[in-house]
Write a structure and sequence with these properties.
This protein is of the alpha+beta class and 185 residues long. The chain contains two helices and nine strands, in the order αββαβββββββ. The strands form three sheets. A four-stranded antiparallel beta sheet has the order 5-4-7-8, with no helix packed on it. The structure holds heme C (HEC) (2 copies). The site of one heme C has 22 residues, from helix 2, strand 3 and strand 6. The site of one heme C (HEC) has 22 residues, from helix 2, strand 3 and strand 6.
Length: 185
């Protein structure tokens, strides 16, 4: 918490804009911290083009023009429907659009084959979002996945075929997922 407040103070003094401006990046507003959004930093910019957009929502589904859980009443961005897309949260049940309080500097998402060989390493931005660079898988599917940070690992035991992580990793979790993809505790 102390670090968080310090970061907030720093960003306010650096950019001199304060007044609800979030340190996460453009498109976020600092608001009340709650159990389901401990950072209080929420994306408030709808579908404006940004890799920080819509943390927690089903990225690829919307980009493909699908309406997963009523998240996309219309539109899409097919050319950017990258195969692997999702969000890493601080804890397992955070609400849609909430950015993590802090992203460990060395945190990455690793995509592995079913022999546990790492095939792809994806960086995680300040909104917790990660994305691959191709609309094709480019790695063997089914794949496995894990989050690495601070020398610790949080791994998905099973293999999956759909790279749109947030369709299973919703607030409560669907298809047996425990909730969000989260940083190793
Ligand atoms: C409800 C629909 C919707 C969801 C959910 C969504 N996006 Fe988007 N995304 C869009 C649209 C529409 C655009 C194009 C916006 C434009 O052209 O102004 C876009 C554009 C982008 C871009 C291009 C940005 C650029 O600068 O070129 C990236 C990257 C992106 N989204 C990442 C994500 C990620 C990561 C997620 C999930 C955490 C996500 N999106 C969730 C609708 C969505
Ligand atoms: C079709 C559903 C589904 C999809 C898609 C999916 N997962 Fe999972 N995930 C699960 C299930 C079920 C579990 C719990 C059982 C297990 O570990 O296999 C899980 C557990 C995890 C865990 C450990 C617990 C947690 O919630 O953090 C991580 C990390 C994870 N998944 C990462 C990912 C990533 C990254 C992606 C996308 C590249 C992804 N998952 C896509 C179903 C899914």
């Amino acid at each position: 918490m102390r670090t968080r407040l310090a970061a907030l103070a720093l960003s306010v003094s650096l950019f001199g804009c304060g007044g609800g401006t979030s340190p996460v990046g453009p498109g976020f507003s600092a608001g009340a911290a709650t159990d389901t959004c401990p950072s209080g930093d929420r994306w408030t910019s709808g579908n404006s083009e940004s890799e920080l957009m819509n943390p927690g929502l089903a990225c690829r589904s919307c980009h493909l023009g699908n309406n997963f859980m009523g998240q996309n009443p219309g539109g899409g961005e097919t050319a950017k429907a990258y195969f692997f897309m999702g969000t890493v949260f601080t804890s397992p049940h955070e609400e849609n659009l909430c950015a993590p309080a802090a992203v460990p500097t060395d945190a990455v998402v690793e995509i592995l084959d079913t022999n546990d060989v790492v095939q792809l390493t994806l960086s995680i931005n300040s909104a917790g979002n990660f994305l691959s660079k191709s609309t094709l898988a480019t790695v063997p599917v089914p794949y496995k996945a894990r989050v690495k940070a601070g020398g610790k690992i949080n791994a998905m035991g099973g293999a999956q075929s759909d790279g749109d992580c947030n369709t299973c990793h919703t607030v409560a979790g669907t298809g047996g997922a425990p909730g969000r993809v989260f940083f190793p505790q």
